[in-house]
Design goal:
340 residues; alpha+beta; 9-stranded mixed β-sheet; 4-stranded antiparallel β-sheet; 15 strands; 23% helix; 34% strand
């Protein structure tokens, strides 16, 4: 047989196969590492996007606090019966309260049981949502009238039932003077129109009243239990929950007080240290939150995050320590109070 036609020996073949497998393993490892790197980068991108959304929502609504169509809360009168169906202990006096444009509740992290913040009416969150309150997280309630819901007097009186679908409480304001807050489906409507006759040309405006509540839940929104920023809004005669942003793991607030009336913040305090008489002095809110990624990285987050001036420190639970995180802090001015 011709020597040039001779094939590979068994040893040569085994060596070639081994080298091929080594090269293939290297290529596979590069592929796996690249895929993991892409997943982590994609997770960081979503983390940053969620942080922007959360900042945007909080800023938008906090700036609306105490907007009463050009008058002070003390100039708002409740007219007629105010009927509200709950949930829980979220009664008329708590939900429809123009004298409390912004009120916070410090999260309770004591013990092992999940405990809603002290002072928050029982059932406000739990009865209207699916998920569990995140222990230690703060809750914030904001009240105002929505400037995008203006209706003239003719519409207000002729279509009261249709107006109630997105919140049935309205404020009728004589700009610069006083206002009546009433249930558009009740007798208060007739009383308010008689008390403040006229329309926009006479300086009389009608806007929908709103209460919103921000809080955190561990909720399943289709991807398993995930820490989520939620918001309650007043729909018809009940507070309705809606998820806003996934991956918000902890939420804390501090409140800037103007103690001498010069329009500047003199001190910051957490909700649990404020008396009822302190809340009207709040002109700024410092919101701190932890935004978490959704892809597990190859490290353990052992960092502790100091979230408030009062020294609240958040340490990620061991079970979720391999997620990437960012601490976001935003200072938000209550422009309606600063302008008064």
């Amino acid at each position: 047989m011709n020597a040039r036609a001779r094939g590979f020996s068994l040893v040569e073949l085994m060596v070639a196969i081994t080298l091929g497998l080594v090269l293939l393993a290297g290529v596979a490892q590069v592929f796996v590492n690249s895929k993991q790197g892409y997943r982590v980068q994609d997770s960081v991108g979503r983390l940053q996007e969620n942080a922007r959304y959360a900042s945007g929502y909080l800023s938008q609504y906090i700036r609306m606090a105490d907007l009463w169509s050009g008058i002070k809360p003390s100039q708002v009168a409740l007219v007629g019966a105010v009927a509200y169906s709950g949930p829980g202990s979220c009664t008329n006096g708590w939900v429809v309260d123009p004298n409390s444009g912004i009120v916070g509740y410090s999260g309770d992290s004591s013990g092992t049981a999940l405990t809603y913040p002290n002072g928050l009416p029982s059932g406000c969150i739990g009865s209207s949502t699916t998920g569990s309150y995140i222990n230690g997280s703060d809750v914030l309630a904001i009240r105002y009238v929505d400037p995008n819901t203006y209706v003239n007097t003719a519409t207000l009186t002729a279509a009261a039932s249709s107006l109630s679908s997105n919140g049935k409480f309205y404020l009728r304001t004589l700009v610069g003077k006083r206002a009546d807050l009433f249930d558009v489906t009740g007798s208060g409507l007739t009383s308010a129109v008689a008390d403040l006759p006229g329309d926009a040309v006479d300086g009389v405006l009608n806007f929908q009243y709103q209460t919103v509540v921000f809080f955190l839940l561990n909720a399943d929104n289709g991807q398993g239990l995930t820490p989520t920023l939620y918001m309650l809004t007043l729909q018809s005669d009940a507070l309705t929950a809606q998820p806003l942003v996934d991956g918000i793991e902890m939420l804390k607030f501090e409140y800037g007080l103007d103690t001498n009336g010069d329009g500047r913040v003199d001190q910051y305090a957490v909700a649990s240290s404020l008396a009822t008489t302190d809340w009207p002095k709040v002109i700024s809110v410092r919101a701190s939150f932890i935004a978490r990624g959704d892809a597990i990285d190859g490290y353990t987050d052992t960092q502790s995050y100091t979230m408030t001036g009062a020294g609240y420190v958040y340490t990620p639970p061991t079970a979720v320590a391999k997620y990437q995180r960012r601490l976001i802090v935003r200072e938000i001015q209550l422009r309606n109070r600063v302008r008064q």
